[in-house]
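[agent] plan:
  1. take the single chain provided in the ticket
  2. run structure prediction with default settings
  3. attach structure tokens to the ticket
  4. add a short note for the reviewer (M.T.)
[agent] executing step 1
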Amino acid sequence: MKTIQILGAGCAKCRMLEEATRKAADAIGLEYQVEKITDVMRFSDFGVMMTPAMAVNGEVKVSGRVPSVDELKQLLQ
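[agent] step 2 finished; step 3 output follows
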């Protein structure tokens, strides 16, 4: 099972990234759990300077933008 971390303060783009990530993960049949990280102090633990961001098992895959569902599918595999 993969842990997908969504980093962001809860803005509209953060919610869009979470929704797109869930769609992508479901589409490829990934077994996952989502952890929302809204504490700005924890963003630096990941080296993230721009949100929204998405990490998989602690490894940042995207930061500062909301990729397409197709791009997210590739990042999650």
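[agent] step 4 note for reviewer: Strands lie at 2-7, 32-37, 53-56, 59-63.
[agent] ticket updated
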